Amino acid sequence: MNTFRMTKHVVGFTFGEPVETGILMGAKEKVSLKLPLEIAQKDGHSRFSFPLTERDRVYGLGPNLGGINKRGRKYESYCTDDPLHHEDKTTLYGAHNFFILEDDDVARGYFIDFPSRIRYDVGFTSQSQFTVDIFGENFTLLVIDGENLKSIVKNFHEVIGKPYMPPKWGLGYAQSRWGYKTAEDVRRVREAFERHDLPLDSIYLDLDYMEDFKDFSVSEERFPKLQELSQELQETGVHLVPIIDAGVKIEEGYDIYEEGIAGDHFVKNVKGEPYVAAVWPGKVHFPDFLQEKTQTWFGEKYKALTDLGIDGFWNDMNEPAIFYDETSLQEGVEAAIKAQGENLGVYAFFNLRDKFQSIGNKDEYYQRFFHEFHGKTYSNEELHNLYGFYMTKSASEGLRKILGKRFVLISRASSIGMHRYSGIWTGDNSSWWSHLSLNLRMLPALNMSGFYYVGADTGGFGGNAYGELLLRWLQLSAFTPLLRNHSALGCAQQEPYAFGTEVAEKAREILRDRYRLIPYLYSETLKAWKEGGLMFTPLAFEFWGEEAQHAEDQMLLGEELMISPVTQANAGGRYVYLPEAMAEVTFKEDQVTLTLEKEGVRYMSYALDELKFHLRRNRLLPYVPPASSTRDLEVSTLHVLGYVETEGEYELLDDDGISYGYEDEKMYSTRIRVTRGEDGVKVDVKNTHPHIKRILLTILDGENHIMEKEVLV
Amino acid sequence: MNTFRMTKHVVGFTFGEPVETGILMGAKEKVSLKLPLEIAQKDGHSRFSFPLTERDRVYGLGPNLGGINKRGRKYESYCTDDPLHHEDKTTLYGAHNFFILEDDDVARGYFIDFPSRIRYDVGFTSQSQFTVDIFGENFTLLVIDGENLKSIVKNFHEVIGKPYMPPKWGLGYAQSRWGYKTAEDVRRVREAFERHDLPLDSIYLDLDYMEDFKDFSVSEERFPKLQELSQELQETGVHLVPIIDAGVKIEEGYDIYEEGIAGDHFVKNVKGEPYVAAVWPGKVHFPDFLQEKTQTWFGEKYKALTDLGIDGFWNDMNEPAIFYDETSLQEGVEAAIKAQGENLGVYAFFNLRDKFQSIGNKDEYYQRFFHEFHGKTYSNEELHNLYGFYMTKSASEGLRKILGKRFVLISRASSIGMHRYSGIWTGDNSSWWSHLSLNLRMLPALNMSGFYYVGADTGGFGGNAYGELLLRWLQLSAFTPLLRNHSALGCAQQEPYAFGTEVAEKAREILRDRYRLIPYLYSETLKAWKEGGLMFTPLAFEFWGEEAQHAEDQMLLGEELMISPVTQANAGGRYVYLPEAMAEVTFKEDQVTLTLEKEGVRYMSYALDELKFHLRRNRLLPYVPPASSTRDLEVSTLHVLGYVETEGEYELLDDDGISYGYEDEKMYSTRIRVTRGEDGVKVDVKNTHPHIKRILLTILDGENHIMEKEVLV
Question: Is Secreted a UniProt keyword of this protein (chains A, B) (predicted)?
């Protein structure tokens, strides 16, 4: 075991010869340290455990099922495409091996830098034990200290590099559907948004736009003039965001396939031939994204679409998902042939059925193909969790080179490290109330892993949404940097206008409120880029007491807000816990109201056409008038809500929304400070924002009195 | 359309020539009435709708997904065996066509007497419309009025006959598992209960006890002397409850099969031959339970097991579930053969996979076999929802004749009408927190359908339970008349001692508390038998206000209690809404505490080793000391808790627990009345119970003062 220090708070322990995953950034100073754990190694596994008392809590593990507190479940880090996320499932699309264990004495963060399977049993098999089972003997374990839970997260973020920063238009509303089959469909969607006066910044294209599911192809028949469509939409402030899949169709004459063969870019089977799997295009080869030459090659291919005016993409199927491979299909067929004419016993029948039922994403597929990585050959299984990461690095670096400006990029598969290259959507969820609830609970864990540009498929991907579910989901997604409504072919249409006029009108109200908050959300995203740490913070990270410790359905956003969405059907509201006095803010029909609410629990009515949240004591919240596109957001008059008993300050960060100026800290800053003294309320403003001219403040005091004030800057 | 009146509150409308399902009981007086609805009939469907305002609510529909308020979903009445009850599902094992629609002006109950498919769209497709789609043109619609929601339920119960009444031992704790493979396994379970001092009244046997899954057979090898086992267990107060499946194995020499053929008892295919389907035993025939001769024949067969000392059964697979039939399997095999060597496109592949993946319970199976019913031939599809009902009627009537005493009987498939013959468990749920929550929300709807002997598979059938989930589930099931812990082969063992000593100890506390409450629960079950109506009542049925209207996770039990179980992981408690002042009751470590809580919402800590609930104002709750079996329950000293501000009364009903005396109203009654006057507290007792000798009262007043009093009777 080698030990090293990365920062004051982060030390590492290296076992064997770990794969250089590329996740950790920064120097490693060799030091001599004692690991505060015992690690048992046996049969190619490494295992360690923590004892758990009833009060201990575990946080993190990225996009996973379960609660904010991860206790009482098993989890598996092994990127998997399984669209039915019910409670038995242990793995989703990401593999994020950062967690914090908080016991009565101390809280500590842990990160396991290992690219294959890891299993976590967090007080499930035994209530009093948390066990980590690493499927290998070569890995690095980081131990991260900090003053408190929030600093542990920041200290971890220092060693994994800064996150992807989306363009400002990426914070606008995105409409998506697997099933916008033609350019006309897309035009109709945009027109419907206009007709219903619904804000819109982008329309995502699923597989439909491709020719035979071929990456970087465009269907001549269905999307004959994509460049015209793209331009036409951009003129109305709407970006097109097409999908790219991991698998490349095997087809003579198809340029990507032929270049891939010629350039030796595809993963190999055990015989050294390109490995064949079946996904959407039928038989495909997978690019070996672990190789730099392949990253460069594939990343440049995006040019085919950026040349048509495209500046946003989503990378899909990059776990990689595999529908079947020939060996397993053949096994199924042979079993069926053998069954013919037999009087099958029930177990023989189950066995036959299972050959087809469980043919997708079999473990053995990932043992059957191989990568070249840093000059060595590895099975996919060994590096499995890096595949989506490196596909996305390839795209992100390619796009930056091609475009020279920021772009939207999200990926389905993910691991920590990929946060430097893109955001993520939380995968193929369902139109279930439990997934709305899951969406909320995942947010802090995604931030812990360094991902800020995150959001779920609002309304749910699979299954059928309905008006009430969509509206409630919008009331949550109104706060997530990525706000995308996406649904699957064959499921109910779920555009905000798909459920009738009444729902469309209510959705409009919520979306207008979202756009009011974009300056704040964008500012918080820039702050997360600068400083790391949490944008969405569990109440348990900030407050004491049983209610705060167990709060799974409300959380803090930034230092300013507490959000408490309704996540249940047929509810006129919900119980909200206020760990301290806060101002309840209601945005409804372009009116903003502010009411003082005292500490404790109370029932909060929450209608479907409003946006409600709480503003913390001595905090300020900037907002602007609504707009129908981020392009049209008008900041010349900045509104500020405050609940100030003594003093409150907020620094609004902004920039041009599209260049990389923020990397040189070239941001606009508007620092507003409100002080309440004996001689009344004083407002100080320091402003470098070129467009902000006037600030209109609405300030609540501890007696529920409201004061309005105007400041010219 | 013919119209008729059954009672003052119940009128009926007959369309076409409905099947005489046997659900409705009592005379139908011909009258001339106007239907308060428009029914459209077209293409063999009948459809009617109700407009819905945002405030309207819909209740009922029996064992289904969704909330207490059924809005925002689709439901289907078509008994189906589908073990993965996630949010997309629209049908479970029962088909209960009773619902109440409450709008601002009026509440009304509706029952559709129709034995095939009915679909309900309760404000899903359109928020403002509730549509009922009956897959036929011949049916009877009952419209039920009442003073309030609770009376509507009672008025409905008057026309469907009195419910099944379990023996008292049926309210004891039942341990079950698919996977108690031998008599020794069963002995070990009983011994473990004794060793851990856990109460136990019955052990259920799943398919394991049978020889080759054959009904009424017992494996010579694994259960060689079932009679001895049964006797041995009964001596310790434990009953064996074996399973019986619907399908009869096709096997020469197997008596049931041969008698079935000889007596012409099996359902037929279109050619008039016995229909062949595959279930657990491989190929089976299904008894035609719709025929009286078959009911009699099959009902008598239970004697094979009652002769061995058995007095409880569960009827399973009686939707009926079908794994495959030969036609469909052959189609799958042929598709596989055709696929051989082909380069399958993705849709061709999906099509092939689906032939096997979706081979169970196909719609067409139920069109391929036929029943004789009241002298006519019907496809199973036409009478589908009566199959489980009539299998259970057959068992229930058979058992009554054979045993001459009460027995435990539960069924998986169900429809209204079957409530006269057995209880139900809510089917093959999963070890999911959401199913614990669903269990709670289903209870009032099951009562509405006339079922009181109900409970879910506590801990969850499929998937893996863990300690905390089981304990939280026990804290709910402690209140349901049927309290059975059941789990599937291959899933984690989930006996209360399977998760270590600490969990076993906590479970013991909860189960001891259950046994304290059995006299009350049994009394409430007898009252439900006498009077109908709800045992579990939504708060919305009793209280005004938004909080009560939306309360989906707490409800009233009897006239006395409010239960508020914890249904979330990692919670130290929950928010409880008190629509009026109540006494909070905590049973913990044989101590009972009583605290006055005022109206409103508050956070209630709820530990894993206690039982908490609320006692309403001016109500009394009787309980007794814990026991390890219902046989040992000791009522000579009856404890009574009260929260009495002015006066409170409770009538405890009881009987010998096993005979049919209750049918002649031969019950014991202990009527306790507590009056608080200026001169203190007065207690009146009228007692006909032969064993109750002493009453110990603990009475709380509106000032949180407690008074104790002893009354000898």
Answer: no
